[in-house]
Amino acid sequence: MADTHIVPPLEFRRAAQATLRTCEQNSIAALRSARALVKAWPNVPAAVRLLAFVLRKANRTREADEADEAAVQASSATPAMLAVHDALAAGQLEQAEVLVRQHLRADPEDAYAAKLLADIAVRCGAIPEGETFYKRALLLAPGYHEARLALALLFSRSNREADAFAAVDHVLARAATHAKALSVKAGLLSHGRRLDEADRLFRKLVAAHPRDPVAWINYAYLLKTLNRTAESIAAYRKAIAFDKANGLAWFGLANLKTVRFDAADIVAMEDALTRPGATDEQRLHLHFALGKAYDDQRDYNAAFGQYRTGNALRRARTPYDAEIVSAEVSTVERVFTQPLIAARNGAGAPDPDPIFIVSLPRSGSTLIEQILASHSLVEGTEELYEIEAIARSLTRNVAPSAWLEEIAKLPPATLHALGRQYIENTRKHRTTDRPYFTDKMPSNWRFTGLIQLILPNAKIVDIRRHPLGCGFANFAQHFNWGIDFSYDLADIGRFYSDYVRHMAHFDAVTPGRIHRAFYETLVDRFEPEVRRLLDSLGLPFDPACLAFHENTRPVYTPSAEQVRQPIYRAGVERWQHYSAHLDPLRDALGPVLDLYPDVPTRW
Predict the structure, then answer these.
(1) What is the pLDDT of residue 166?
(2) Comparing 10-76 with 322-595, is the CATH topology the same?
(3) Are the beta carbons of 57 and 27 closer than 8 angstroms?
(4) What is the pLDDT, as a whole number, of residue 559?
(5) N or C: which end of the chain has fewer CB within 10 A?
(6) Which CATH number is 10-76 given?
């Protein structure tokens, strides 16, 4: 029986050392010896790694890359790595890290383990460490394409687009039709607003992999962004035709918001849930899609049950501590005082270009952006990460609110430099010569004080939605990542309350600085509210803002299809169908719900 121990047996190690010595004089004999070792010990990752090394020494790069991938597969199936997989699946990142490091002490040349350590570091926000371990994995296995693509995504996240493209192109130069590499590059092109190039690459992807559901799903998302809805639906349906149990494809259809599921769709999704081998990831997407399907049938109790189950699956994998945000808001109240803001008045960069749209998710921020992006003087640039990146750069501490302890120490010159850094870093997202642009990252409300210090002439628009409407909309929406509060009604209510408290603080210390809009009022009094919004921004009235739904610009958020329709009330009232289930949300909101749209005067 083949040996499966992490540490290879003594007999193998002696044979491997002899093969390495032979490699220096006779590559053909070394290759013959390495292949014999793989045959004798097929489950020992070190055997396949040795073969990859000998192949690379013989300049047989393609075969060496294939051997690297085989070594990675062998390592992934070892008992040590299976234990790491279990810890990650349970959300136990610290335990997973301990197990990986323990394994690497015994087997320091395991590229798969090095990549897992990088993945864990990135999930914990330790980006430099993640980059180091990805590079370590590639040093050990240059043909480890998954590690190189993970590094490409990390580069993209760190605004190192040239490095990201170089990493992906390295893979494509060796494997021209590599499915994930084509998809990642298309995603990079899309992120860089090079949508025609992304479209061509996705067409190449589905031509090369016509039966790959993931390829069709990724292409469908781009087609949705491009306002090619019928093609997007067809692409999702194509994915389902090849994999009827694919939760991502069903959820993609649901996330278009305008697709109505029929009885046959419901039967297919319910059947998919009962199939053996379905992962939690597949199941939670199916539950959210079924929630939409039952909502279409007006079976609201059944719909809520699906949303509740999907959220429970997600929450089990995504721990969330509401105290962290509450404590952050308290720190903001302590740090951003009137004297601090007055002492730094005008210190930041004077550029008036940015219009920040802040809110909770599902509150109408995409609608506000679509209205403004229809104005002849404003370019819509979607959700940008630059403000958060600047905040995080102020300290090496990875705690989310650590930057707050540094902000009061910054001299005026640094504030000015940070403002200029934001302007320069966002320039790549601008493709027109319009003087103003939107930054629609909803979570930028947490950086309101930073924005005011480094960009004193930037505008801030805060769009709010009824707490129960907003809260239920978040509960019914599965987000890919980052909205960790949204999987529990009580957590949503607490988060909403903290957001209101945070913004109330800045209303007090910088009165009149933030324009506030309310989704329900915008729907009921559309033109007057649009005029009020434009006046607050110092923009002349533009009739195109009233015809926002005719704007064909790409839209990347889940609300894409909704903002391509005229204004309507259905979204305002939807939560009322679920009112009987929302008591945990009501209790957590407390006086914030009772007083809406006003806010408590004391907290």
Answers:
(1) 97
(2) no
(3) yes
(4) 55
(5) N
(6) 1.25.40
The per-residue pLDDT for range 236-278, each reduced to its tens digit, is: 999 999 999 999 999 999 999 889 999 999 999 999 999 888 8
Domain ranges in the chain are 10-76, 322-595
3-state SS, one letter per residue, for 243-310: CCCCHHHHHHHHHCCCCCCCHHHHHHHHHHHHCCCCCHHHHHHHHHHHHHHHHHCCCHHHHHHHHHHH
Three-class secondary structure of residue 4 per DSSP: coil
Q: In terms of Cα–Cα distance, which of 103, 112, 104, 151 is closest to 128?
A: 151
Closest CA to 331 of 396, 398, 405, 388: 405
Contact assessment for residue 439 and residue 381, using Cβ atoms and an 8 Å cutoff: yes
What pLDDT, on a 0 to 100 scale, did the predictor assign at position 553?
Answer: 66
Q: Rounded CA gap, 240 and 270, in Å?
A: 14
The CA distance from 89 to 375, in Å, is 46
Q: What string of DSSP letters covers 500-556?
A: HHHHHHHHHHSTTSEEEEEHHHHHHTHHHHHHHHHHHTT----GGGGGGGG------
How far is residue 531's CA from residue 329's CA, in Å, rounded to a whole number?
32
Quick one: which H or E segment has residue 71? helix 61-76
**In whole angstroms, what is the distance from residue 552 CA to residue 559 CA?**
14
**What is the C-alpha end-to-end distance of the chain, expressed in Å?**
68
| pLDDT value of position 4 | 38
Q: Both tokens of residue 540?
A: 């002349």
Which of 348, 417, 354, 419 shows the shortest CA–CA distance to 382? 354
Bridge partners, residue 355, by sequence: 438, 459
Model-level pTM?
A: 0.83
On whether the CB atoms of residues 168 and 145 are closer than 8 A, the answer is no
